[in-house]
Amino acid sequence: MPDENYLSIQGVSKQFDSGGNALSAIQDVSFDIPRGAFVSILGPSGCGKSTLFNIIAGLLPPTAGDVRLDDTSIIGKAGQVGYMLQKDLLLPWRTIEDNITLGQTLRGTPRRKARSAAAPLIARCGLAHFEKKKPHQLSGGMRQRAALLRTLLTGKDVLLLDEPFGALDAITRLQLQMTLIDVWQETRKTILFVTHDVEEALLLSDEIIVLTERPGRVRARLSVSLPRPRTPDMLADPEWMQLKAQLMTLLLREVSAS
Ligand code: ADP
Ligand code: MG
User: Fold this and answer.
1) Residue 89, beta-bridge partner list
2) Within a domain: residue 62?
3) Ligand 1-lining residues (CB < 6 angstroms)
4) How far apart are CA 174 and CA 166, in angstroms?
5) Which of 47, 81, 183, 187 would disulfide-bridge 158, Cβ 3.0–4.6 Å?
6) 16 is a domain residue
7) Residue 101 zone, left/alpha/beta (φ > 0; ψ -120 to 50; rest)
8) What pTM does this model have?
9) Which ligand 1 atom is at minimum distance from the Cα of 26?
10) How far is the CA of 49 from the centre of ligand 2 (A)?
């Protein structure tokens, strides 16, 4: 099957029934993601980004359209992709390392083996010495790191990350963005990443899909050909600034039109 449309979103719409009135969250969204790409979805708050992710993850049926992975429909099929929700959703009774390795233990890997395999990544994400703690003993930022690691270790080829760094301070955020890119480059996963942060999208993505205000539709698609590794000194690069201005203009037009 062609790698160019490995993950294919085809005419997806979703209407919710909100107290007898139909609320249209996304409308006729179509795009293809090549295998191994890092693609960001950028859009104003409430435009249907999480709704789209829930549909791709097989948790929510669309009102219309299809989602195909490797040319097979995955509508209503949970468990085909790794999914990190906006909320960390760690299991409170499990230690951090047992939360991180949940996917492997669910697949039958012995806990000890799963823990030792995860140890290098745990250290890289600044969670060494926190492995034996429970989620409530960690800060919000630390819990997000653990949730990201768990998602990276799910063993799925496609990962959906819904604003994973939204609540972090600037330094932690930059550190985790770099770790994510390192892991992505090593593992060649296909990543779909939701953000409302233009700079974050530029730092991470091969391509950026801009959605309109609700109901979310595809407003624009921009390829980001900036070389990798991308570093903070690129903030002054003319191509970076031109793309940033273009994205800001698109987003501003969206919110001021509503
Ligand atoms: P985003 O993630 O872009 O901020 P969401 O996908 O969470 O947006 O929500 C899009 C719109 O759909 C919002 O107006 C939200 O209130 C509405 N919505 C989301 N889930 C439901 C639901 N289960 N029932 C009714 N309305 C919903
Ligand atoms: Mg959301």
Assistant:
1) none
2) yes
3) 16, 18, 23, 25, 43, 45-51, 214
4) 11
5) 81
6) yes
7) alpha
8) 0.93
9) 10
10) 5
